[in-house]
């Protein structure tokens, strides 16, 4: 089993939303409570400060990202740091912010919202697709694990507060068909499913908050393996690097005593676990 190394040692209070930009060959991620977008290249670390919470991204082209913020989805220019609003996201609700999100195989973007203070049922799950944003699920507490099977016919989604991951069947345009069904039920074990990503073989890799690991499950829901981390609160994985064979994992230092976990909040890199899917492009 490959060991996890520290890719970036900047300690995020709440690291989230890693995205490997396939055109730029560059990892981006967020510190939600720090209101920052982070990255690094061979020249060193990069970061951009925002005036509101930011949490997840998709790539539009080689120069711009779609970024989910506390109040909207915005088009972000990487070179200049400028933003242009695309669509509002619960902008009239001061209780909530964005959380986990990912682009889907059809060019849409799924994004969850939640209470800033984890208020029960305050959030929802949405999909933005070609100019339209539509609510898919209401009364969500901590939306996570948004990811997609390689064939484009299945979406996964978790509410961490319920210890459940569901799966949705998708139609030809990527919209859910019918009700979601339970994919992983962790209510007895108490495992907290956080962010997740699906590899090229269809296996789901999930960061398990409080468990100090990323766990891999088959498309049938069978546990396959787990990779330990030196941070107890991993938040989200993303495949990237050469041949998409490195699993990057963000983590959080939130609510931990100072010095209790030296690596808490760092971003990790785990080589040679599996090969990932190329991150899908958002089509505006």
Give the arrangement of secondary structure elements.
Layout: E1 5-8, E2 15-21, E3 26-31, E4 36-41, E5 44-49, E6 54-59, E7 64-69, E8 72-77, E9 83-88, E10 96-103, E11 109-115, E12 123-129, E13 132-140, E14 143-148, E15 154-159, E16 164-170, E17 176-185, E18 192-198, E19 204-209, E20 213-217, E21 223-228, E22 234-240, E23 246-251, E24 267-271
Antiparallel strand pairs: 1-24, 2-3, 3-4, 4-5, 6-7, 7-8, 8-9, 10-11, 11-12, 12-13, 14-15, 15-16, 16-17, 18-19, 19-20, 20-21, 22-23, 23-24
What keyword list fits this structure?
single chain, mainly beta, Neuraminidase, 4-stranded antiparallel sheet, 24 strands, globular
Architecture overview:
By secondary structure, the protein is an all-beta fold. The protein has a single domain (5-271), classed as 6 Propeller (Neuraminidase). It has no helices and 24 strands. It has strands at residues 5-8, 15-21, 26-31, 36-41, 44-49, 54-59, 64-69, 72-77, 83-88, 96-103, 109-115, 123-129, 132-140, 143-148, 154-159, 164-170, 176-185, 192-198, 204-209, 213-217, 223-228, 234-240, 246-251, 267-271. Strands 1-24-23-22 form a four-stranded antiparallel β-sheet, with no helix packed on it.
Distance between the termini: 40 Å
Sheet-strand content, in percent, reads over 45%
Report on the biggest sheet: 4 strands, antiparallel
CATH architecture verdict: 6 Propeller
The CATH superfamily name is TolB, C-terminal domain
Q: Please mark out the parts with pLDDT under 50 across 5 or more consecutive residues, or reply none.
A: none
Number of helices: 0
CATH third-level topology: Neuraminidase
Mean model confidence by pLDDT: 97
How many domains is the backbone divided into?
Answer: 1
The class by helix and strand makeup works out as mainly beta
Rough outline: globular
> Strand order across the biggest sheet?
1-24-23-22
Secondary structure: helix percent = under 10%
């Amino acid at each position: 089993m490959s060991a996890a190394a520290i890719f970036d040692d900047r300690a995020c209070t709440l690291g989230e939303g890693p995205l490997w930009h396939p055109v730029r060959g560059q990892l981006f991620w967020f510190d939600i409570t720090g209101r920052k977008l982070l990255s690094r290249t061979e020249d060193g670390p990069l970061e951009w400060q925002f005036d509101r919470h930011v949490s997840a991204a998709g790539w539009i082209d080689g120069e711009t990202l779609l970024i989910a913020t506390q109040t909207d989805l915005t088009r972000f220019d990487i070179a200049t740091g400028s933003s242009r609003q695309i669509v509002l996201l619960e902008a009239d609700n001061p209780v909530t912010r964005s959380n986990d999100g990912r682009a889907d195989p059809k060019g849409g973007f799924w994004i969850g919202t939640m209470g800033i203070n984890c208020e029960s049922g305050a959030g929802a799950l949405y999909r933005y697709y070609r100019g339209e944003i539509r609510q898919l699920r209401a009364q969500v507490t901590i939306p996570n694990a948004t990811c997609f099977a390689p064939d484009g016919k299945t979406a996964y989604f978790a509410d961490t507060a319920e210890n459940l991951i569901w799966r949705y069947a998708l139609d030809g345009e990527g919209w859910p068909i019918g009700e979601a069904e339970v994919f992983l039920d962790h209510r007895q074990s108490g495992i907290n499913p956080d962010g997740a990503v699906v590899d090229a073989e269809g296996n789901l890799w999930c960061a398990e908050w409080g468990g100090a690991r990323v766990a891999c499950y088959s498309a049938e829901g069978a546990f396959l393996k787990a990779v330990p981390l030196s941070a107890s609160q991993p938040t989200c994985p993303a495949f990237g690097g050469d041949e998409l064979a490195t699993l990057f994992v963000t983590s959080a230092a939130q609510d931990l005593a100072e010095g209790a976990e030296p690596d808490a909040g760092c971003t990790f890199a785990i080589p040679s676990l599996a090969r990932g899917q190329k991150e899908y492009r958002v089509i505006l």
